[in-house]
Design brief:
The protein is mainly β and 122 residues long. It is built from 2 helices and 10 strands.
């Protein structure tokens, strides 16, 4: 999975998370996607309604609003020709991006918005 975090301007806690399931290039056009939320990595998650795309974007504020605090997010993608199922890694969600990082999630890039809304590298 490819993971990006973009911190809000003058805010070290809130961020936009962009998560990309990223199956291999040869499978990508032939996959169905579904994102799930679960309390336990060993249990089948509940599908997140209408999240049927390769990428999932969520703001840390929405994690709190949706009641996802401390829950795990993952994506299951299925090759439509072979029916082979794959899952991404599990990401533990928190309304504080620092807690997500501290939980062991390694982001491919962490950047921030400047005062004009442009994304800048930290």
């Amino acid at each position: 999975m490819i993971k990006y975090a973009i911190r809000l301007h003058n805010n070290n806690v809130d961020a936009f998370l962009i998560l990309h399931a990223a199956p291999s290039a040869e499978e990508q056009p032939l996959c169905k996607f579904q994102w799930y939320i679960t309390e336990d990595k060993n249990l089948v998650g509940k599908p997140i309604e209408d999240e049927l795309y390769e990428s999932y974007t969520i703001k840390t504020q929405r994690i709190k609003e949706e009641g996802y605090e401390g829950l795990y997010l993952y994506c299951k993608f299925t090759n439509v020709k072979t029916n082979k199922e794959n899952k991404t890694e599990f990401i533990q969600l928190f309304s504080d991006v620092n807690k997500i990082i501290d939980s062991g999630t390694v982001f491919d890039d962490i950047s921030k918005f400047d005062e004009k809304g442009n994304i800048i590298t930290q």
